[in-house]
């Protein structure tokens, strides 16, 4: 086949293959197991020597569908409760195809006013959705990890300036270590951001008041008194049990000591959408920077995240390199997002978010959030009613932290049993859930965050956990007596 110039008439035909596969796949998705090990061998078909002349677009895409559809992890379906993984709402998923169709070179206004304008609009809409101040600068990222990095890079610029240093131009040389404070809820992605920024992964100070990692605000206040300019990281929604740092109190402490407050609200920022949970994020609008994900609770397709920074000039100073004089000057309408994040060129990441907000609005997203809150309460009730299940943390949001604890199994065997149960759940794949260590014990922590999930899916989680748990517990007692 060779040169794609000879193949171009087939682009629409290849897209048609994908479109024709979409209907049956999406119709089947609610009933598929999360993953089907029987199809794992298909992955070998991806492999082989580098093709010399090639098969052409239609054959290549047909092959990718033949392998990919059955071998994919169906995490976009309703029963992937592992990690925190959202699905893709119909509007967002279709708009993601538009991104591919139009193939915009986002990042610079002159190469895509469409991408730039859509990004400006969705950032404004998102600020309204979360009740954040309209004056915040913002940028779309690939996820909360990069959004945390954006916020912390701005914090670093601010902090260096307190020491009379322009870190963007001159780097960190000669500066002391930047003091960073957080609770035990700190997500590993913030440590990764600190390591990338040259601030050190292992020097976060964590004044906590219990083994769950809750913040000791009084101790934080004391430690800040002689820390000099410092950065606080608040977590809005931690991954083990969905709990929140007291953001409003952290904002008080930050103001008292002139510190920077960054909030990681990867999924937890969406608590602002419902009056039932809005109190959890009270004070977030006082933060200097805020990070969140689109591919979790917004149910935008991967990859999708966003960062907001109170001082929009600082954001542009931190990421603009001033080294490409052929680029236009940024102004209100013609934003160059390549000056606002570590990325330069990127896809038109705003379009799926735009379509989701246009399609479902504030009301629709609130309804989705509240459905998840209801489903989680249902799951909590089912756990409370089951004599062999034990809830380990209060339910705050959409994460339920619990373990399998059948009568008669000694305490010191429960960690091993639950760890094997986590592995068995993934192998079984009717539902996916994984384990964590919470307050020193191995626990399951399903997160219900997919727009497709309904009551039977949650009930099946309980059924499968108890069924597999009982089998493992029997095997254990069989082993003990045999
Ligand atoms: C998921 C998550 C992140 C990282 O987000 P990515 O989308 O994986 O980059 C950061 N913080 C918290 C609290 C998270 O749950």
TrEMBL record:
- A UniProt-annotated Pfam family: Pyridoxal_deC
One GO molecular function term of this record is: pyridoxal phosphate binding
Question: What UniProt keywords are attached to this protein's entry?
Answer: Aminotransferase, Decarboxylase, Lyase, Pyridoxal phosphate, Transferase
* Cofactor(s) named in the record: pyridoxal 5'-phosphate
Q: Which domain of life is it from?
A: Bacteria
| N6-(pyridoxal phosphate)lysine: residues carrying this PTM | 296
- Which BP terms in the Gene Ontology apply to this protein? amino acid metabolic process; carboxylic acid metabolic process
The family note in this entry says: Belongs to the group II decarboxylase family.
**What name appears for this protein in its UniProt entry?**
Aspartate aminotransferase family protein
Q: Which organism is it from?
A: Saccharothrix syringae
């Amino acid at each position: 086949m060779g040169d794609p110039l000879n193949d171009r008439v087939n682009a629409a035909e290849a897209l048609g293959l994908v479109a024709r596969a979409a209907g049956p796949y999406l119709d089947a998705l609610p009933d598929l197991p999360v993953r089907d090990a029987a199809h794992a061998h298909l992955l070998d078909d991806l492999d082989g020597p580098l093709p010399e002349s090639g098969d052409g677009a239609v054959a290549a895409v047909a092959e990718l569908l033949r392998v990919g559809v059955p071998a994919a992890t169906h995490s976009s379906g309703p029963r992937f409760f592992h990690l925190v993984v959202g699905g893709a709402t119909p509007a967002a998923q279709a708009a993601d195809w538009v991104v591919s169709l139009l193939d915009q070179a986002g990042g610079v206004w002159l190469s895509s006013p469409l991408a730039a304008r859509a990004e400006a609009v969705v950032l404004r809409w998102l600020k309204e959705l979360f009740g954040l101040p309209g004056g915040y600068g913002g940028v779309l990222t690939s996820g909360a990890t990069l959004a945390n990095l954006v916020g912390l890079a701005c914090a670093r610029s601010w902090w260096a300036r307190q020491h009379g240093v322009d870190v963007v131009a001159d780097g960190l040389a000669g500066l002391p270590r930047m003091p960073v404070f957080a609770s035990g809820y700190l997500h590993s992605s913030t440590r990764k951001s600190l390591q990338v920024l040259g601030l050190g992964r292992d020097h976060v100070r964590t004044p906590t008041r219990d083994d769950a990692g809750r913040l000791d605000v009084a101790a934080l206040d004391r430690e800040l008194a002689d820390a000099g300019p410092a950065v606080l990281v608040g977590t809005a929604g931690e991954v083990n049990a969905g709990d929140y740092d007291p953001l409003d109190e952290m904002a008080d402490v930050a103001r008292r000591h002139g510190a920077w407050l960054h909030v990681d609200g990867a999924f937890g920022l969406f608590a602002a959408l419902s009056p039932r949970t809005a109190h959890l994020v009270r004070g977030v609008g006082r933060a200097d920077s805020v990070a969140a994900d689109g591919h979790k609770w917004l149910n935008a397709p991967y990859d999708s995240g966003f960062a907001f920074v109170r001082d929009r000039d600082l954001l542009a100073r931190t990421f603009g390199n001033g080294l490409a004089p052929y680029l236009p000057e940024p102004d209100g309408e013609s934003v160059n997002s390549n000056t606002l994040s570590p990325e330069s060129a990127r896809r038109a990441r705003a379009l799926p978010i735009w379509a989701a907000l246009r399609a479902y609005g504030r009301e629709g997203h609130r309804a989705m959030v509240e459905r998840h809150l209801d489903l989680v309460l249902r799951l909590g009730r089912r756990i409370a009613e089951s004599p062999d299940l034990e809830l380990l943390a209060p339910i705050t949001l959409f994460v339920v932290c619990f373990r399998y604890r059948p009568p008669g199994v000694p305490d010191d065997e429960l960690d091993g049993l639950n760890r094997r149960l986590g592995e068995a759940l993934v192998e079984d794949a009717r539902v996916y859930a994984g384990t964590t260590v919470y307050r020193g014990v191995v626990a399951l922590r399903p997160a219900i965050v997919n727009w497709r999930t309904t009551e039977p899916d949650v009930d099946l989680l309980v059924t499968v956990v108890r069924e597999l748990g009982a089998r493992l517990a029997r095997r254990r007692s069989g082993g003990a007596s045999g």
